[in-house]
Inverse folding.
């Protein structure tokens, strides 16, 4: 909600949710959780319709992968004209293809839990000069294949300039305020601080040196992003708030 109220939105994958639920029935992916929050926000807001979510999906997802409840949710958001859909042909729909598309259409990443997929996605985002904010919740991953966001959070504490190229001096002093693992900080406060940090970074103008560094890394980093073969759990994007500029 904090992201949406600040003029941002989410980039998610719309696919099968039922098969990734744990023994308690809780999903191990956040995509549909995020879209339900989008729908709740849309139903309660009085602002003019805009794009709240960018959704990457296979062209056969609605046929066989999305259950009826989630499909009704998706159609409701389409009817309200608050989502953008990016279909990938089933013949070429692979993990690397949809993840590279999600990264392409994202301005920033909020990393929560996950394993190698989350870690690799965060690394590729930073290589593209896009801010990444990892949280320290010990959620693990569905494949039990690494520490994901937790590992990224450790790196951010020592290399904040990789994660927040323009506002790293401020970001390095906020790491403690983002801690959730021991329950010291209130989750609502962490959400507020996270959104504030990402907004400030996206609004900042890179210095000439930063801009040249980012430009020089783009080609190599983009090739690497296209080779991703692991799960991206959640990528959040922000609109720049100057004028009516859409997603960058």
């Amino acid at each position: 909600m904090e992201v949406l109220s600040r003029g941002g939105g989410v980039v998610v994958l719309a696919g099968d949710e039922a098969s990734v639920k744990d023994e308690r029935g809780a999903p191990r992916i956040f995509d549909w959780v995020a879209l339900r929050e989008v729908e709740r926000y849309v139903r309660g807001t009085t602002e003019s319709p805009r794009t709240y979510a960018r959704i990457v999906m296979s062209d056969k997802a609605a046929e066989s992968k999305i259950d009826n409840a989630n499909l009704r949710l998706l159609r409701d958001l389409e009817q309200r004209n608050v989502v953008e859909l990016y279909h990938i042909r089933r013949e070429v729909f692979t993990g690397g293809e949809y993840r590279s598309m999600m990264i392409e259409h994202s301005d920033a990443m909020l990393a929560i839990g996950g394993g190698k997929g989350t870690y690799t996605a965060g690394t590729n985002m930073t290589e593209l000069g896009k801010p990444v904010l990892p949280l320290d919740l010990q959620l693990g991953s569905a494949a039990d294949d690494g520490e994901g966001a937790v590992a990224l959070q450790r790196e951010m504490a020592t290399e904040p300039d990789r994660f927040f190229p323009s506002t790293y001096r401020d970001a390095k002093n906020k790491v403690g305020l983002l801690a959730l693992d021991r329950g010291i900080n209130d989750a609502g406060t962490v959400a507020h601080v996270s959104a504030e940090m990402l907004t400030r970074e996206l609004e900042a103008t890179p210095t000439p040196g930063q801009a040249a560094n980012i430009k020089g890394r783009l080609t190599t980093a983009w090739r690497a992003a296209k080779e991703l073969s692991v799960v991206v759990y959640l990528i959040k994007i922000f609109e720049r708030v100057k004028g009516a500029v859409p997603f960058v």
